[in-house]
Amino acid sequence: MNSDTPLSQRSLFHADRDLVLTAAQLRAQGVSQAETNERCRPGGPWQQLLPGVYALHSCAVSGEERVRGALRYAARGNRGAGRGGQRGAGVREVAVPPQGATGGDAMITGLAALALHGFSAPPPLPDQEFVDVLVPRLRRLRSTGYVRIVRAASLPAPVLVNGVPVAPAARALADAVAELDDAGVVRRLMAEAVRDGHCEPAVAVRELSRAKLLSRPHVMDAVDALLAEGRALAENRLYRLVRDHALPDPLWNVDLRLPGGPHLGGLDAYWPDHAVALELDVRAPRQEDDVLWAEYARKRETLERLGITVVHITPRKLRESMEQQAMVIRTALLAAADRPPSAYVVVLPR
């Protein structure tokens, strides 16, 4: 094979090779800028993706390569030129790093990150107009080409998806919603986030609140649907927990009142023979002061003064440790025999 044979013809068959490199990485391998420019001419074997970022082939650029190119662009100037061969080693022997390696403090976010997380609602990576990259606020970068820079005072810990640093699902969701005006798309993204277990409703809403998106009517409508879907999923898991772990059947979705007295509050499940109440903690605070948590605490204190044990379970715990939650409930039921009798309360359907 002669020296004019495009590198892509030899290397595209190696899945562990990354064919997206920066100018600095190429120079470290003995490829001058003039040589790079020559190979990126119209009809040439390479192509320029972004300023200082090149694909070492002339084929259509894949979605994954667009993502890696975006990270290479964001990492420029934030790392050394990389390890390489000697000057004049020849273009055909360019060493390339593992896929996804960036060496920078940047991560993919927005719709591209959601696609990488496995969401089906976003367009496929090759069809997305932009790739959003989350970077520290003080990084001197600008959006260019298909890369859209998203700045943050502090970055979350990234999740590695096939070696690519990706923002956690809730953060990526908020960054995606910030750029969307289509209420239907926003609603589908939020529903999928909860339904497929990518993040808890409360965590998603917290990220939307941090991004100051809850003042947008179409986002608030989607949040209401998200919370309703999250509660429905949690209730179904709770029904399954009681059935699969052979717990006594409770009274589902009830209100408690004192005889002729005030309303004590609604409960997701209540075992009257054991004076054990269960409430799903589906809080999604939209303000700094958590009014809903104060209401939970007030209800719990009132019921416990009446001799009723209150168990709080979060949707996340139901999803991730159902057996452990069943043990918590069973322990509370068994302990009823050692407690003084509770006050008489009226149980009504909610």
List strands and helices in order, with pairings:
Elements: H1 7-11, E1 20-22, H2 23-28, H3 33-39, E2 47-50, E3 53-55, H4 63-75, E4 107-109, H5 110-117, E5 131-136, E6 147-152, E7 159-161, E8 164-166, H6 169-177, H7 183-195, H8 201-210, H9 217-244, E9 251-257, E10 263-271, E11 276-280, H10 291-305, E12 309-313, H11 315-320, H12 322-334, E13 346-349
Parallel strand pairs: 5-6, 11-12
Antiparallel strand pairs: 1-3, 2-3, 4-5, 7-8, 9-10, 9-13, 10-11
Helix pairs in contact: 5-6, 6-7, 6-8, 7-9
Protein name: DUF559 domain-containing protein
Describe this structure in words.
With 350 residues, the protein is α+β, with helices and mostly antiparallel strands. It has 3 domains: 1-103, no CATH class; 105-244, no CATH class; 246-349, Endonuclease, Chain A. The chain is 38% helix and 17% strand. The protein is built from 12 helices and 13 strands. A 5-stranded mixed beta sheet has the order 12-11-10-9-13, with helices on both faces. Strands 1-3-2 form a 3-stranded antiparallel beta sheet. The protein is elongated, with a radius of gyration of 28 Å. The termini are far apart. It comes from Streptomyces roseirectus. This is DUF559 domain-containing protein.
